[in-house]
Amino acid sequence: MQTEFVALTPFENFLYALKAEESKRQYPHRLDKFLTFLEFQGTIEEKCAKLYEFFMKKFSERVSCIVT
């Protein structure tokens, strides 16, 4: 029996990490404000994906050196 894993988007991972109902209500709006401040364009899902891509492009090599 094989188990299939569904890859979550960066925004879905963010929402999954929120446990309290009040956090689920407030934090997506706050994240959107932060991403707008960083001058990302698009929907919140698109902004999160762009931030993830930016981070992985700029810092993935450094993070892998720290982790290993």
Rg, alpha carbons: 15 Å
Q: Tell me about the largest β-sheet.
A: none
Provide the domain count.
1
Structural class: mainly alpha
Count the beta strands.
0
Low-confidence parts: none
Shape: globular
Output mean pLDDT.
88
The rounded distance between the terminal residues' Cα atoms is: 32 Å
Strand proportion, as a percent range, falls in: under 5%
Order of helices and strands: HHH
With helices defined by DSSP (H or I, 4 residues minimum), what is the helix count? 3
Helix content: over 70%
List the helices and strands and how they pair.
Blueprint: H1 10-17, H2 21-37, H3 44-67
Helix pairs in contact: 2-3
How does this model look, in words?
With 68 residues, the chain is mostly helical. It has helices at residues 10-17, 21-37, 44-67. α2 crosses α3 (44-67).
Short description:
By secondary structure, the protein is mostly helical. The chain has helices at residues 10-17, 21-37, 44-67. It is 72% helix and 0% strand.
Key features of this structure:
single chain; mainly alpha; 3 helices; globular
